Request: fold
Amino acid sequence: MTMTRPVLRREGTTRGGRPYVIRPSQDADAPGLAALIDAVAGEGELIAAVPGEPDTIEQSSRLVSIVLEGGLTLTLEVDGVPQGHVMVQRRAGGHYAHVGEIAILVSNEQRGAGLGRLLMETAIEWGRVVGLAKLSLRVFPDNRRAIALYRSLGFQDEGLVRGEVRMPSGDRDMLLMGLALSGPGSARPPAILQNE
Reply:
């Protein structure tokens, strides 16, 4: 029996004519990803981070640990500069290892260009191929744009966790969303991914 391998590298051209590549993250990506987190955090409370918080060493160790624990981390580069990141962290323990926690980050400059969707579709395909039964994520309830993307990919609302994240503005709720990859309630597999 031949085992299918997920396609983790995608290349193309943005709608604006700039070359992009999605590929497995490398240790050398850590400074660029820390800067990306810092930039998105500076836009307001879209993510659970504040400006000045990311640290290159911490980011580097996180990339390594996610992969060592059987997870996935992909970097989106546009013109050779990190502009997005998606990661799937497997839950620990025999009763939870069938679920992956997915998180995505895309620079303001690249939002709305379809690259975030491509990152998510690549991670979802990976989850199916490696045998995960479910992907779950957390998002601020007022992040309508992100929620619309997740719902369009088949994620469903699973509940609201009150006061889950402590931000400078106060404690924030998080919306839990999930996507069944196998078994009852699983969403149809996404169409074959095409470059833009």
